[in-house]
Amino acid sequence: MPLIATGRPIVYSLCQYGMNSVWEWGPEVGGNLWRTTGDIKDSYERMSLIGFAQAGLAKYAGPGHWNDPDMLEVGNGGMNGDEYRTYMSLWAMLPAPLLAGNDLSKMDPETLAILENRDAIAIDQDPLGIQGDRLSAVGPLEIWSKPLSDGSKAVALFNRGELEIPMTLMMNDVKFGESGQTPRCVGRQRYYCSEWHLYCNCTEAWSGISAHSKQVVISTFNNRANIRLRIQFAEIPAFMSG
Questions:
Q1: Is 4 within 8 Å of 22 (Cβ atoms)?
Q2: Where are the domains of the chain?
Q3: How would you classify the pairing of strands 33-35 and 198-204?
């Protein structure tokens, strides 16, 4: 292709607003990314409609060719903090191109903290390049998962409803390994998984809090909010596997 022949690093973005299933043929014409939808707006309703509609498109994305649900509107004033964090988390899980669409000269501390969240960016830019997808949807509650290059998984919990609601994520719901095994986390201190000699270590991305656990219980899950976890199952030392 002429662009490749220039020998210059050029990103070729296709933009026809998701028509004609561009994700199916975009790579064949040399596209590096392609818009999957119409234009986004700075509203939770539009962001939610576009972002969650990306479920099922993971197989078309990968290193060098990405689904693009449009730019970020974080900080433009149309959503509250929880909604913008949901926005950033969902785009990181996809993983969408992170193009800031706000006035960079007028960012408040909360906007800057969301856009500069290192874990969100690391999940989005993970070199494995696999797009996250929906694991489950029960009423307004959704669980999304994205495999990462270090063997861990990013897991995002979303409350898309208008009310606060409790939610529980069981580690069994997050599948690891080529055969899709679901390690049973048991015990008290390390919650190591006796069947697979694994233990689970969870880190919440926005707060940075880490814990060893077999389940994540959210007693009060704010409406339109999200919690994003990095979950690692790793081999425990032989002397502990008893």
A1: no
A2: 1-131, 132-242
A3: unpaired
Tokens of 219: 């007693």
How far is residue 10's CA from residue 70's CA, in Å, rounded to a whole number?
Answer: 19
Q: pTM for the complete prediction?
A: 0.80
CATH superfamily of 1-131: Aldolase class I (3.20.20.70)
Distant-in-sequence contacts of 192-196, Cβ < 8 A, 24+ apart? 192/236, 192/240, 192/241, 193/233, 196/233
159 band by pLDDT with thresholds 50, 70 and 90: confident
SS3 sequence of the chain: CHHHHCCCCCCCEECCCCHHHHHHHCHHHCCCEEECCCCCCCCHHHHHHHHHCCCCCHHHCECCEEEECCCECCCCCCCCHHHHHHHHHHHHHCCCCCCECCCHHHCCHHHHHHHCCHHHHHHHCCCCCCCCEEEEEECCEEEEEEECCCCCEEEEEEECCCCCEEEEEEHHHCCECCCCECCCCCCCCCCEECCCCEEEEEEECCCCCEEECCEEEEEEECCCCEEEEEEEEEECCHHHHC
192: its two tokens: 């190591």
Structure confidence at residue 74 (pLDDT): 97
Instruction: Classify domain 132-242 at the CATH class level.
Output: mainly beta
Residues 52, 140: Cα–Cα separation, whole Å: 12
Whether residue 229 is predicted with pLDDT greater than 80 in this model: the reply is: no
